[in-house]
Amino acid sequence: MIDLSDLTAVKSALRAQRIETPSWAFANSGTRFKVFPQAGVPRTPEEKIADAATVHRFTGAAPSVALHIPWDRVADFGALTRYARDLGVEVGAINTNVFQDEDYKLGSVTNPDAGVRRKATDHLLEAISIMDATGSRDLKLWFSDGLNYPGQDDLRDRQDRLAEALREAYARLGGDQRILLEYKLFEPAFYATDIPDWGTAYAHCLELGERATVCIDTGHHAPGTNIEFIVAFLLRAGKLGAFDFNSRFYADDDLMAGAADPFQLFRIMYEIVRGGALDPAYGIKFMLDQCHNIEAKIPAIIRSVMNVQEATAKALLVDRDALRAAQREGRVLESNAILMDAYNTDVRPILADLRTEAGLDPDPIAAYRRSGYQEKIVAERVGGDQAGWGA
Amino acid sequence: MIDLSDLTAVKSALRAQRIETPSWAFANSGTRFKVFPQAGVPRTPEEKIADAATVHRFTGAAPSVALHIPWDRVADFGALTRYARDLGVEVGAINTNVFQDEDYKLGSVTNPDAGVRRKATDHLLEAISIMDATGSRDLKLWFSDGLNYPGQDDLRDRQDRLAEALREAYARLGGDQRILLEYKLFEPAFYATDIPDWGTAYAHCLELGERATVCIDTGHHAPGTNIEFIVAFLLRAGKLGAFDFNSRFYADDDLMAGAADPFQLFRIMYEIVRGGALDPAYGIKFMLDQCHNIEAKIPAIIRSVMNVQEATAKALLVDRDALRAAQREGRVLESNAILMDAYNTDVRPILADLRTEAGLDPDPIAAYRRSGYQEKIVAERVGGDQAGWGA
Amino acid sequence: MIDLSDLTAVKSALRAQRIETPSWAFANSGTRFKVFPQAGVPRTPEEKIADAATVHRFTGAAPSVALHIPWDRVADFGALTRYARDLGVEVGAINTNVFQDEDYKLGSVTNPDAGVRRKATDHLLEAISIMDATGSRDLKLWFSDGLNYPGQDDLRDRQDRLAEALREAYARLGGDQRILLEYKLFEPAFYATDIPDWGTAYAHCLELGERATVCIDTGHHAPGTNIEFIVAFLLRAGKLGAFDFNSRFYADDDLMAGAADPFQLFRIMYEIVRGGALDPAYGIKFMLDQCHNIEAKIPAIIRSVMNVQEATAKALLVDRDALRAAQREGRVLESNAILMDAYNTDVRPILADLRTEAGLDPDPIAAYRRSGYQEKIVAERVGGDQAGWGA
Amino acid sequence: MIDLSDLTAVKSALRAQRIETPSWAFANSGTRFKVFPQAGVPRTPEEKIADAATVHRFTGAAPSVALHIPWDRVADFGALTRYARDLGVEVGAINTNVFQDEDYKLGSVTNPDAGVRRKATDHLLEAISIMDATGSRDLKLWFSDGLNYPGQDDLRDRQDRLAEALREAYARLGGDQRILLEYKLFEPAFYATDIPDWGTAYAHCLELGERATVCIDTGHHAPGTNIEFIVAFLLRAGKLGAFDFNSRFYADDDLMAGAADPFQLFRIMYEIVRGGALDPAYGIKFMLDQCHNIEAKIPAIIRSVMNVQEATAKALLVDRDALRAAQREGRVLESNAILMDAYNTDVRPILADLRTEAGLDPDPIAAYRRSGYQEKIVAERVGGDQAGWGA
User: pLDDT per residue over D340-351, tens digit each?
Assistant: First the structure.
């Protein structure tokens, strides 16, 4: 069993970890079958930010919130940024949602129609302007572009169009701004997706240059994909930029991070630790990207933050010297046992201590429930339109 | 190569084949990301029926249309039935959609709340009343019920609740009415679905009795599932009642039947032919259950009907005597070659002849396009609310 | 966090748990690419039994060993049984391996050739005679039968042949003997397998009668299959008879139980506990069925026994009253949290205590390594033919 | 329907197509459960070549045979090359099988032991010497290297080791020699494979240089992978070097090419045609890589060659001008219909004509069966050791 007598380094690393929450996760969401609205859901970008700040207030580990454009478009992004800072959080990645206009029915930047491509590319440029206004460093690009039927469009032409739009956006980046390029196996396209896997995202990032890196969404892979391998590979190549954490049993289920396969999340975080990429200075962005269709949203996001923290704590507990020695000597069972020893350790007391030391409640969910925040937003957020898909 | 000199029996079987269209496929549909509305989409059950009748007018093979309750609820189902008949089609299966009320957030007939279960079960009974009023024989039951998270509810209790609701509906059946029980691997539930596979549906049908049979939706299986095996097995057990045809590459993509894996559709139809179940007297209902998110709806449905017909024609061309002899003698390559010989045959001329003989245009899609129907509905169906998910 | 102050009931249940090891796991094994032989591997059924007894000696939880016929065929099964008892273990399930004779190339009990079917069925009957001789209660039936190519044989005829062989074996059962019928998605058949899923096994067991139950091999499912659902369903139906535990990431990888998805193993064991089926009196047989291609075999099997015990301990820790209350009230997050609380608990100290109380070393693997057994078998088992696939 | 009045260009392209057969496919093969030996199977590299030449004699389309080292190692490769030429075939790609020595239990070029890595790398260099001796242009590299258990070895270190071995082999290439780098999702490694997907192979090829390209084995992907997308992407990047054709329903089933999903094979060949890569001058190598565990080997390989030809013929029939116009205008159904029109055409008469024009029998399988070759090899190849896995 792991020696837990000196946790100084582990706690220090955990203390530095930052997890970004996504504004849309606080809003209503659902499946194609139904969006079940919840009471108290935010109606404006400001209310989403207030909820994100609440998650940070109870966890101490979620100090930024990603925005989605056009959903979170406001007249004055400078004011929104100040509003967020006043609540204790920063504006995080800017996401470009080019999938809900009628024009995007057959694609955005890969659309066969040049006019639609122009519009979509302009949207990417607008998002960079929002980054300028908010101080956000990260342009997160996910494209729903793809085909539903064989023959529907030319697979290769679409790559050319994609490359062209990416080049234009890349050229517009300034300062330390960068592109986080996401991939996804399928949905909403059901036959071919224009960036279906990490290889495609990686190849485009290589073409673009050093400011373009890959974003791994843990729910966007084919069955059986070894995600930690991709993590290790991209770290070695210097091309891993971000994570969208969430859980899946089947497709892009977008369940709470750590809910479906906590062992996988641990293995991912182990590769992060082993690659020296947990350190905020390394630049990897750890984001949640999930939705809460039937469960209460704020506590679900708090739980997800905690799950990522617990996986990270276990990863930090791995006896890496012993592991390396066993691996080098080909001792299969011992190597595996050393990894599992860390995974099997109950790290919740460590994180509870960490919170207490930081002046937080050791149990963030219980503290949130006692806080009255949920009752307050249910009471106050009456009238107006609840935010949700498309809002 | 197959001898095509005498097609009498093949044509006779094809002439008898009936494919049912689903009312919701004519309406707007989409993914959780976006529903792209189309011009001319029906606004009422009557307009959906008119579109279904149009499909039948051009194919001669789609003489009934399945209704979905509550979407297609009308004040006078007798009048709706007469309206359909006047247009040349019958009311087909009655589908019970117990997934869009707020009450159904945690399930319908398996909900932990007894009141919600009562409401859902009453909905099933109402559907049987609609069957009484329309002369429909088939109660098609698909439940979205399931769990998103481990522990969310008790898997076994939910089976008890399911069984209870099914028993009550079954007891209410009269005349030649029957239950078609559908299963689905996942979606909208992302951890556990209460009827996830054919085995579960089959077991419940066995418990219910001979009026309960399984409905196979071709898009509702885990990757790698051999669907024609299920067809053969259920036919042997006398428990196959219906098909919901559609295509998938990944999940429940609901693409046009025959679009993703035409060879699989052929193998399915071969098992139907081999099992003597193509004959309408056998009682299998061949339905489409799909949606057309980016392509024009009526021609997509016409194409799907044609794809099912082509797969059936190929299945009918298999030289079954030769196949059986080769199988019995363990001649692997010859057996496979006999099957493939039929599959590789171009049967489109056979179906074109069949249509011409029936006074139809040999090319239903071209005929539809020339007919002016599309222009007419686009022009006429202005104002009102387009039907779609939830409408 | 779980209250661990009174573990009396948990320990009592753990103390009663019995896990059966498979004789073939001690022998050489591999993939189609290569079998890597290991030093000290048994050469005879007796040596396999000695290794199984060694696993039991260090774990106290593996008091029986499953045999595979013809691999473990001996002249005097009575003597073999006494030999096992002298070493402290019982002969467990008798497995019928009808897949390595030339005759079985196109199937055993479903072969198109009646003579081969006769031979295969006789093999099943022989296995029952071995059960008579050894006192084994369980006839475990797994058939590799299936097709590599569409059309190769008639899917439905093969079900008839399967049913006939099963009926004959079932009729031969005496005393408290029973059939455990296993299913598998694919391999070695690559297009269709004659018992591919639990539904097929269940349907045949229903036809046979109450002495026939389903055996779940955790590695034999399609991607995405919810195995604990199957456990819950079969328990409800009274038709779950046994488990073959092992781990998989992709196909039937046969890795150590608990190695690939320990959370899944916990969920499975939770359904066992919830269904009252952990009690040996219930009659479920918990077996390992795995192989150790690159790792040392005996410690890998000890580790697997421990993994099953740990998953069971966690399942026993679930606060079922609290869980039921939260489930009934539809509190999604709380229900999930109650389950996860048990999973996140480190139960290794509980099992260490249990072993100490039973006079065993708290760390079975370390104790095995210190014992000199491995060195002894490496030194002694020289000459002769190592057992392996087919041996 | 496609206009078949002028097939000059189609036939010309088909006439130029070359499909390479793999020497191991003529030998015995099987699953981990059993290798069923067949009468007449070759015992030596020369006999394998004789069988390959026989396939070419009846198809006119398989003028080269890939060798596998060490299985096909001979004392004098110059003599073997002349022997092949005398029979009418060339020596094709040289495959390096670094997976059957005891040393390779934990990997070859990625093994933690430097000595084993040296041995494996030397094997690659030896293979290049064999290329020098035979005139073969292609070094085909597939590595079974990977891990069975999390933690077993360091994922990232293994990439470093892999890169080092590849660099050394690459540096040794001379003349027009090149590397074809293959990837595979899993098997024989069951947790992580060192080159699991096209992205990994592509990244290593980029690092190596222009003489390194990716080889796509159609059976080596995760469920749901869109292979034609990979084809299109790699062609655009100039990094597609070869295909290993075979069929799969589940894992790496290695069934006859075109047997499981002929529509997929057609879509792949369409991307080849669309990318201008069918022309032999382009340099793509079209190879079979499959095995015939239960069916007769030579006719199975003839059938596979024919299946690839038929898929190619259909791909060539696509009306690309009409398709491009429909795609550009976003006419979804028409685009799909244009593709399907070609797929639904029966091209067997075209290929029969082509064979007749080339002086071949229009039905290669029937001609092979009549030829007496099978009877001859069964009679002659008696004594000696049949070649098979490891032989």
Answer: 999 999 999 999
Give this prediction's pTM.
0.98
Of C259, C333, C344, the CB nearest to A346: C344
Place of tokens 């012993």: A322
Identify the band that residue D236 occupies on the pLDDT scale cut at 50, 70 and 90: very high
DSSP H helical segments within C154-288, as ranges? 155-172, 198-208, 227-237, 262-274
* Nearest to B181, CA basis, from B158, B222, B209: B209
CA angle (B236 as vertex; D248, B214 as ends), nearest 5: 80
Is the peptide bond prior to C349 cis by the omega test (within 30 degrees of 0)?
A: no
Question: Is there a cis peptide before residue B70, judged by omega within 30 degrees of 0?
Answer: yes
Tokens 């029915």 found at? A105
**Confidence check: pLDDT of D130 > 70:** yes
Whether C224 sits inside 8 A of B339 (CB atoms) is no
Residue with tokens 């991709």: A230
How many Å lie between the alpha carbon of D222 and the closest alpha carbon of chain B? 10
Query: ipTM of the assembly?
Result: 0.98
Contacts of C385 (CB under 8 A, 6+ apart): C43, C391
Nearest CA in chain C to B110: C328
A53 contact partners, CB below 8 Å, separation of at least 6: A65, A84, A87, A88, A89
Dist CA D189 CA C210 (whole Å): 40
The CA R_g of chain D, rounded to the nearest whole Å, is: 21
The mean of the pLDDT values for chain C is 97
Of B224, B332, B346, the CB nearest to D223: B224
List chain C residues with CB under 8 Å of A344.
310, 346, 348
Q: How far is CA A367 from the centre of its chain?
A: 25
Inter-residue contact A88 to A54 (CB < 8 Å): no
Q: Which domains does chain D have, with CATH numbers?
A: 18-313 (3.20.20.150)
Beta strand residue intervals within chain B, DSSP E: 19-22, 64-69, 90-96, 138-141, 146-147, 178-182, 192-193, 212-217, 240-245, 285-288
CA separation for the pair B371, B365 (Å, rounded): 10
Annotate D227-266 with DSSP letters as a single string.
Answer: HHHHHHHHHHHT-EEEEEE-B-SSSS--B-TTSS-HHHHH
Tell me the mean pLDDT in the region C215-233: 98
Q: Hunting for tokens 């079987």 — which residue is that?
A: B13
**How far away is chain D from the Cα of B262, in angstroms, using its nearest Cα?**
7
Element containing residue D306 per DSSP (H, E)? helix D297-317
Residues of chain C contacting residue D28, judged by C-beta atoms under 8 Å apart: none
Residue positions counted in chain D:
391
Please tell me whether residue D338 adopts helix, strand or coil conformation: helix
What does the DSSP 8-state code read for residue B22? E
Handedness of CA B164, B165, B170, B173 (dihedral sign): positive
Label residue C172 exposed, middle or buried (CB < 10 Å: 0-12, 13-18, 19+).
middle
DSSP assignment, residue D106?
G
β-pair type (B146-147, B192-193): antiparallel
Residue of D nearest to A198 (CA): D199
- CB-CB under 8 Å, C196 with B199: no
Task: For residue A303, name the pLDDT band (cuts at 50, 70, 90).
Answer: very high
User: What element of type H or E holds A47?
Assistant: helix A45-59
**3 state SS of D270:** helix
Neighbours of A230 (CB within 10 A): 26
Closest CA to D64 of D14, D130, D20: D20
In D67-150, alpha helices (H): 77-87, 114-134
Q: If 0-12 CB within 10 Å is exposed, 13-18 middle and 19+ buried, where does residue D113 land? A: middle
Q: For residue A224, which residues of chain C lie inside 8 Å, CB to CB? A: 223, 249-250
Beta-carbon separation of D256 and C149 below 8 A: yes
Q: Cβ of D294 and C260 within 8 Å?
A: no
